[in-house]
Amino acid sequence: MSNIKGKLIAVIGDEDTVIGFLMSGSGELNKSRQPNYFIYDKNTSLAELEEAIRGFINRDDIAVLLIVQYVADMVRHVIDNHAKITPAILEIPSKEHAYDPSKDFILKRAQRMFSADDFK
After folding, report:
1. Peptide bond into 35 cis (omega under 30)
2. Which of 4, 102, 111, 119 fits 63 for a cystine, CB–CB 3.0-4.6 Å?
């Protein structure tokens, strides 16, 4: 497992969610001046969103990628093909959209690893 000390948390989501994380002090720029956040809005194209998530997935300075679940649904094909340990992709709710555990990437992956008999 790689050393995650000094790695960043990245955020993809609506403006309110991303600004909330930035106000907590999580905003950073890497050596190439790339931010660790991406704001999705109604004018964002699917190609821009896919580029943002692939960019974060391929950065070696990102340990965790937080993505608002309704935005994750738009790029589910990219998320479902993510096979590396880091960054871990965690889906989070937004102010306007509730969290649905049946769609969660990590939860679905964990369910495939275990059966109901494993918990008896």
Report:
1. no
2. 4
Instruction: Please tell me the total count of domains within the chain.
Output: 1
For residue 1, being part of any structural domain is answered with: no
Give the mean pLDDT per block of 10 residues along the chain (120 residues).
68 95 89 93 96 95 94 92 89 80 63 59
What is the pTM (predicted TM-score) of this model? 0.78
Q: How far apart are CA 21 and CA 35, in angstroms?
A: 13
Residue 22 contacts by C-beta under 8 Å, 6 or more apart in sequence? 37
Does 120 fall in a domain?
no
CA torsion angle 3 77 118 115 (round to 10): -160
Phi, psi of 73 (to 5 degrees): -60, -30
